[in-house]
User: Fold this.
Amino acid sequence: MSTDLPTIELNSGALIPQLGLGVWQADDADTERAVRYAIGTAGYRHVDTAAAYGNEAAVGKALAASGVDRSEVFVTTKLWNADHGRDRALAAIDASLDRLGLDRVDLYLIHWPLQNHDRMIDTWRALIDIRDAGKATTIGVSNFEPHHLTAIIDATGVVPAVNQVELHPRHAQRELRAFCAGHGIAVEAWSPLGGSGSGWGSKSTPNTLLTDPTLTTIADKHGTSTARVMIRWHLQNGIIAIPKSVHEERIAQNIDVLDFELDGDDLATIDRLDVGERVGAHPDELNLGAPKD
Ligand code: A2P
Assistant:
């Protein structure tokens, strides 16, 4: 199943499967079970974690137990806010690799830009060194607005391969997607199904996209679920999506998206759901966990 999933070529030359498993807010036991099932049984070949999720070690254990060769799985982790700054960043990747039990990750991302932009640039310079040292095949960012991207590109000449941002039908990020397309930056969606309804910077509103009447009508038309409709919408728009679930039935359902296609009317109808409504924090406002110096 996994081998048929579309991939996107990143500016590093690496291929990223367009669909992966997200594990934010999953505890160790759930993460280990979910990742093992996703990789070992459901056919996923892409897992997205972060130092801040506290479950890198569980991801590493599940990868080792999955029976699938390391070279076949695309592993992403992220540098947490407290580790901004050159020395902290260089130590943070080593700590993440240690917890994951790996000698390199496929993709290392700066989790948030934060409000100190000089330090953000120093952090990006450290990621370039981390890539050059072979500890991350590809480097990128998360939650960066065009002005953050411009700042790090202008300072270093190195374009991040990926920008992972909140993106779902109610927050389609059209301007940011156009900016990224113009720079060859792949866009990756967090909370691709509209999120869990709680978390950092979140307004803690329940997920209403999974039961949205417009999406339900389209799902009924194709004899499928709203989750699968949203995943198709991401894939057909060239977006990388990492839906989170710790339930085997949903993990399997979310990768079983190759037997139908949204038509032009469906895509246009879903596009009209975009009201710019976030479930998480605006990147310019978040400074959670930032170092004091
Ligand atoms: P759970 O882990 O309990 O399955 P996101 O948009 O951030 O990926 O969040 C998706 C949320 O929706 C998660 O809280 C997840 O919870 C739930 N979820 C994931 N896949 C499905 C699905 N196919 N149907 C319904 N809910 C889902």
User: Anything to note?
Assistant: The pocket of adenosine-2'-5'-diphosphate is lined by residues 22, 191-196, 207, 210, 225, 227, 243-247, 250, 253-254 (CB under 6 Å). The domain at 7-278 is CATH 3.20.20.100 (TIM Barrel). The two ends are 48 Å apart (CA to CA).
